[in-house]
Amino acid sequence: MSLPTLDDLEVEGRRVLVRADLNVPLDEGAVSDDFRIVASLRTIRELRDRGANVIVASHLGRPKGVDPAFSMLPVTERLGELGGFPTIQSPTVIGPEAAATIEGAPEGAVVVLENTRFEPGESKNDPAVADGLAALADLFVNDAFGTAHRAHASNVGVAERLPSAAGRLLEAEIEAFRRLLGTPERPYIVVLGGAKVSDKLEVIKHLLPKVDLMLIGGGMCFTLLEAGGYQIGDSLVETSMIDEVRAVLDGPGGSKIVLPDDIVAADRFAEDAEHVVVAATGIPDGSIGLDIGPVTIRRFSAVIEEAASVFWNGPMGVFEWEAFRAGTAGVAEAVAASGGYTVVGGGDSVAALRLLGRDGDVSFVSSGGGAGLQMLEGKTLPGIAVLERWS
Ligand code: ADP
Ligand code: MG
């Protein structure tokens, strides 16, 4: 099925509701990192330039109902500064106050609705919330890839009610993942890390037949090492996953999984813990693996640099702490240095890439973690499927 885009909408003089991903980190009520706001500008600018009356909706954090600490106001202000256009904050998500704000907005102003999660029905795709959103606009544009794997009122319910299309950012995300899902150039290497193997086992299973090698580090590698019969000391492990993981390791394609050779092992889970490099096959009791070791970094980097297609999700260690950042930094450097088609997804992996200043050196930085993994699992994401109905 084909995806309707902004090219398919007549927007001049129409009210266009854009579901953006403006879920930025806040620090004492101020926006501490505005990259998601910057990323959303392309669609909003295009719609404004084409004469649409733009209304923006997003969630912010995880409030349980109305909570002033999660008001969109600081985001709305920053959006106006960055975009160079007037912005107006609606006091509510839906209802007469929101309608009046939109009605009274001057020509060219962008109205930002309050945090969609202030409506308890948002996450349940409550028809009343979807109706309320649909009543505010003539057309709907979804530009929020990060929530596309969830069926909420502000991405699925509203798209069932208004003629809809994908925004430019969502379009680019889908294109990037379709490129990896289709016939990516070989060697095709997937690098996985992050805390939990339970988050990523489905994607491992789905991708193994398609990739040439899968490099696995991060907290999740210890469940694989344990399933392989090695000593993992006191490292993170998901005991309930071991049988399933062992079946994957022993199954077809299991030999494509590359586990670390060496591990940075700490005496406790702390930023200033004492740490040594040990063989991944024998982490002593009382030691916790918090990063991949130097031999592994060299081995992973060599594979990544030679790859023609790379997907990376999940840090190799507890990169938030400098002592355990080298593995993630090494992979980030290698992905950035690779001449292949490189896609990085996942909140923490992207944060690591940005922390290291290498986000400009990869082919595509995805705004979605779970959504990207579900795309690669071959799943149809509800937020995308609903748009395809309008093609
Ligand atoms: P992403 O957001 O990129 O998808 P995840 O959320 O799956 O990544 O995992 C990121 C988290 O995993 C980070 O907070 C990191 O500190 C943690 N992590 C990585 N390696 C380890 C480890 N060896 N032990 C414990 N936690 C780890
Ligand atoms: Mg994460």
Characterize the structure shown.
It is a single chain. The chain has helices at residues 35-49, 73-83, 96-104, 127-134, 153-161, 168-181, 201-207, 221-227, 242-250, 294-306, 326-337, 347-355, 370-376, 382-388; strands spanning 15-19, 26-27, 30-31, 53-57, 87-89, 110-112, 139-142, 164-166, 188-192, 213-216, 231-232, 257-258, 262-266, 275-279, 282-283, 288-292, 309-313, 341-345, 364-365. With 391 residues, it is of the alpha/beta class. The chain has 2 domains: 6-168, Rossmann fold (3-Layer(aba) Sandwich); 175-376, 3-Layer(aba) Sandwich (Rossmann fold), CATH 3.40.50. The mean pLDDT is 96. Bound molecules: adenosine-5'-diphosphate (ADP) and magnesium ion (MG).
Number of helices: 14
| Top CATH class of the largest domain | Alpha Beta
Low-pLDDT stretches are: none
Structural classification: alpha/beta
**Strands side by side in the biggest sheet:** 5-6-4-1-7-8
Radius of gyration: 22 Å
Strand fraction band? 15-25%
Bound molecules: adenosine-5'-diphosphate, magnesium ion
Can you identify the CATH superfamily of the largest domain? Phosphoglycerate kinase, N-terminal domain
